[in-house]
Design brief:
The complex is a heterodimer of chains A (about 290) and B (about 270). Helix content of chain A is about 75%, strand content about 0%. Chain A is built from 13 helices and two strands; from the N terminus they run ααββααααααααααα. Chain A folds into two domains: about 60 residues, no CATH class; about 220 residues, MetI-like (MetI-like fold, Orthogonal Bundle). The radius of gyration of chain A is 25 Å and the shape is globular. With about 290 residues, chain A is an all-alpha fold. In chain A, strands 1-2 form a two-stranded antiparallel sheet. The longest helix of chain A has about 35 residues. In chain A, a hairpin with a 5-residue loop joins strand 1 and strand 2. Chain B folds into two domains: about 55 residues, no CATH class; about 220 residues, MetI-like fold. Chain B has 13 helices and two strands, in the order H-H-E-E-H-H-H-H-H-H-H-H-H-H-H. A two-stranded antiparallel ribbon of chain B has the order 1-2. Classes of the chains: A mainly alpha (about 290), B mainly alpha (about 270). Chains A and B meet through helix 1, helix 2, helix 4, helix 5 and helix 6 of A and helix 2, helix 4, helix 5, helix 6 and helix 7 of B. Chain B: Belongs to the binding-protein-dependent transport system permease family.
Chain lengths: ~290, ~270
């Protein structure tokens, strides 16, 4: 490695020698890994599910695995619960994180610093520990039940192993990045423009609607895309906290691949997931690239 | 700031509300887990445990499956982080300081993984690993976790190398320092802390990586998070999971707080497209 660096550094920056393919050589292995383990698997999954080989070894265009997915009651239920979870999580995240981000943007001092530290904390809690904490708090005879019982109230209907289990876990898990992305977007809202609007008599709601919202709509979309991509195919939290049937696409794919041992079926489910997320994925990648290019 | 607080005598109600709710919702569950770890007896309707103690620490740490999983996780994370540093840091240097054909498109190619829902991509990779007989093997898990570290380990160091003042390097070279000496004495000390943070992040991230290890590694490779999954599923002694959570979480929390301080919150959010 060091002789690479030495040769690289010894090239005077201004000469054409800087264009020698040594740079290509240095980046070759990581780029190869991306092509082999990101781009190729995606292409492979699509091509193997639409260009199937039959028993006689003839391969032909064949959409039967997709026809099965979209006619199978169980697959469709799983897809529906996945879409429902993603939608509910996205809405909840926005409703929870936007007020926090707005508050953090327009306040100073120790209390907001504390609120921000709390909002970012879940980023440092691995989801496996979150799942354990969830069961101890909201599970049967968990902390919430204990406290309700202490004040003489009935137990809650536990969200553990219901569709609301993954929703609560995933929202908790995604709060930090949503707040950070929204906060970074709010940084572009100038104090002067808000004061100017206030001066001409706009109330808080109008300031939010006409001044702040148009400026952060892109950040909202980025935050939503990021969480949709993560939530749509999440595995750990739905697997541990969600119902066994219907199950979200993450656990469904895992079971189809490892337990049912049906790679074609699992790849079909993966491609369906790609299809539902493609717009969010492209938008997200474009935003990050644009940000980085600046 | 002081003038603002003078002017605004009324309490910051919305701030207090956020602080109270977030403390309950975010800190609360972690406190419950921590309490369970130091509990010997806690039967249902009691608000606090009947008996505190360290008995379950000894029991948890005495289990051979815990030790095996811990050793395997440490080994995996070390191998993945070292490999990642070995292939990514020279690449980051090349992206930051050299011109070569296709530089920009190759740089952004590391974003490709983010265009797909993650677990779907893992399933697509697993389908390829099935044909290569990499399922259930150590190196299969290494490969899948290595891919997960690539973007962090290239983008953060690239920013670090770009932040090094070129004029200082040129000045050192003018007074006769060898290129390696320049890299060692000028470039590395300046870029070092950020690069160290990236390495730390990828180590901790790999240590906790669950989905790839579960999908590719099962049944042969049982890392710490995979062991936790089976503890949760089998509803074994509650304290085992609690002790493992406390044990595993505290060091990584310190490490991550440190890493975030070095990288900086703003740059962190921008890295995610904010």
């Amino acid at each position: 490695m060091s002789e690479f660096v030495e040769r690289a550094v010894s090239v005077p920056a201004e000469t054409a020698a800087g264009r020698r393919p040594i740079g290509l050589l240095l980046v070759a292995i990581p780029v190869f890994l991306v092509i082999w383990l990101v781009i190729w698997p995606a292409i492979n999954a699509i091509s193997r599910t639409i260009w199937r080989t039959d028993a006689d070894g003839n391969s032909s265009f064949d959409l039967s695995s997709y026809a099965f997915f979209f006619s199978d009651r169980y697959s469709l239920d799983n897809l529906a619960i996945t879409l429902w979870t993603t939608l509910v999580c996205a809405v909840l995240l926005l409703v929870i994180c936007l007020p926090i981000a707005l508050y953090l943007r327009f306040s100073h001092g120790r209390l907001p610093a504390y609120v921000q530290a709390l909002a970012i904390l879940p980023m440092f809690v691995p989801s496996i520990i979150l799942a354990f904490a969830f069961i101890r708090v909201l599970g049967p005879n968990g902390m919430v039940d204990i406290l309700l019982n202490a004040v003489g109230l009935p137990k809650i209907r536990t969200p553990y192993l219901t569709p609301w289990g993954p929703v609560i876990g995933l929202v908790w898990d995604n709060i930090p990045l949503t707040v950070l992305i929204l906060l970074s977007g709010l940084g572009s809202v100038a104090n002067q423009s808000i004061e100017a609007a206030r001066d001409v008599g706009a109330n808080t709601l109008r300031v939010f609607w006409h001044i702040i919202l148009p400026r952060i709509s892109n950040s909202i979309l980025v935050a939503l895309s990021f969480s949709v991509l993560g939530i749509f195919s999440s595995f750990t939290l739905p697997y541990l906290l969600g119902p066994a049937s219907p199950e979200m696409l993450g656990p469904f794919m895992q079971r189809t691949l490892r337990d049912v041992q049906d790679p074609i079926g699992a790849m079909t489910q993966a491609v369906v997931a790609f299809g539902f997320c493609i717009l969010f994925g492209l938008f997200y990648v474009r935003s990050v690239a644009k940000n980085r290019g600046k | 700031m002081t003038s603002l607080t003078l002017k605004r005598a009324r309490p910051d109600w919305s701030g207090i509300a956020f602080a109270v709710i977030l403390t309950l919702v975010i800190i609360g569950p972690l406190v419950v887990v921590a309490t369970w770890a130091f509990t010997e007896v806690w039967r249902y309707p009691n608000i606090i445990p009947q008996k505190f103690g360290f008995r379950f620490w000894g029991q948890t740490l005495g289990r051979p499956d815990v030790w095996n999983a811990l050793m395997l996780s440490l080994k995996l994370s070390t191998v993945v982080t070292l490999l990642s540093a070995l292939i990514c840091l020279p690449a980051a240097y090349a992206f930051a300081r050299m011109k070569f054909p296709g530089r920009d498109i190759l740089f952004f190619s590391f974003l490709a993984g983010h265009a797909f829902p993650k677990f779907g991509l893992l399933v697509a990779i697993a389908a390829i690993f099935l044909q290569l007989n990499l399922i259930g093997t150590f190196w299969g898990v290494v490969l899948i976790q290595l891919v997960g570290t690539l973007m962090f380990m290239i983008w953060i160091p690239v920013a670090a190398f770009q932040a090094v003042d070129k004029r200082m390097e040129e000045a050192a070279r003018d007074v006769g320092a060898s290129p390696l000496r320049v890299f060692w004495s000028i470039t590395l000390p300046q870029a070092g802390p950020t690069i160290f943070a990236a390495v730390l992040l990828s180590f901790v991230g790999t240590f906790y990586e669950t989905e790839g290890a579960w999908l590719i590694g099962a049944p042969g490779i049982r890392t710490m998070p995979v062991l936790m999954i089976s503890y949760i599923n089998n509803q074994m002694v509650i304290q085992y999971g609690a002790v493992l959570s406390v044990l595993l979480w505290v060091p990584s929390f310190i490490a991550l707080m440190f890493a975030r301080r070095v990288i900086g919150g703003g740059a962190f959010a921008r890295g995610f497209g904010g």
